[in-house]
Write a structure and sequence with these properties.
Elements (H helix, E strand, L loop, with lengths): L3 E6 L2 E5 L1 H28 L5 H4 L70 E5 L6 H11 L4 E6 L10 E4 L4 H10 L8 E4 L11 E5 L6
Parallel strand pairs: 3-4, 3-7, 5-6
Antiparallel strand pairs: 1-2, 5-7
Amino acid sequence: MRKFSFGRRNGRGFGLDSHDVAVSSAIVAVTLIAAILIVALVDHQDPGGGPAGGGPVAVPSATDIPTPPRTSAPSTQTATTTPSPTAMVTAQPSTPAPPATSTSPAPSPTTTPPATPPPPLRPAVTIINNSRIEGLAVQVEPLVSAKGFIVQEKGNYSGEVVFSHTTVLYENGQEGFAEELVEAMKGYDDDIKIKLNDGDRIKPNGTLVFVITKNFKI
């Protein structure tokens, strides 16, 4: 049986085995019970008695009696703590959100119509008398002006070449106006000719040259 060492005396150790400890505990318990019975018997015989004032005597309980300490054998097992694996989290790169796209409709292209060029101004008229009737150009002037034409000059023809028909001479870009003048004078002469003024007979001056003959009747 294992012995428990409590101390040393005269340089030598003394000890108690477990049997001796059990016997000692039993003696202490019997002694305690006897003391309790004696105190109870005395208290029953003399209820008013007691120390200094006759108060009740406190009976020590079993827990108040000191018990020899017990020494437990040291444990030979060592607790081993296994470290838990540390969870490793790898941060994933965040994917950037795609840029917002505008869904507004594209403006429709506006087409600016080309500017319409202004109509050419109606050219002025030069009236030339190619007859032997005195003052015929002066008499025709109000007739031409009444049709919306402006008479710039008037006079008698002095060239060598004689026009056999009443004629309207026009320059480049004036042919349409020449036709208007012929149409306006048809009531006075139904055989008016239209020709490009090439400068052979009369020098161009930027106007319609209205050459009248004896066939023009007023």
